[in-house]
Amino acid sequence: KDFLVASGYVDPRKVGITGGSYGGFMTLMALGKTPEAFAAGAQWFGIINWHTMWTAGDASLREYQRTLVGDPEKDAALYAAQSPMTYLSQAKAPLLSLQGENDIRVPRGQAQEVADLLKSKGVVTETIFYPEEGHGFYKRENQIDSLERTVAWFDRHLRSVD
Q: What would the pLDDT profile of 124-135 be if each residue is shown by its tens digit?
């Protein structure tokens, strides 16, 4: 964001952030840890809570997760520090979350956790669950819909900033 603003072409009050999977994780971390930095966000199937991901994941996913953040019992503090959920209570920017109903990497409940938290804080949020989709959108109509929703979200929340 700083680079874009320094270029002189970007209004610092009209910057959004988006990403999917790890990019969704980064979007959520940015919104929670730097609540004044972005005017809107859109995350697609991003990791939200390493603890709940561990409990919902299969054995191979758990082993991969162990290489990233360690053991959930021995490294509980690291799990908390690396979970966007730890910081999202500070988020202020409107957030669009797009999630596959059958995602085994980032279970549906994680996106619902975010929506519930943000709504309880009065933050504008919209969450869409795509039936029969997993970690990513493979049906052509869902690919199109997710892109159109994301563009419309930023159009609505970035253009309206004065």
A: 999 999 999 999
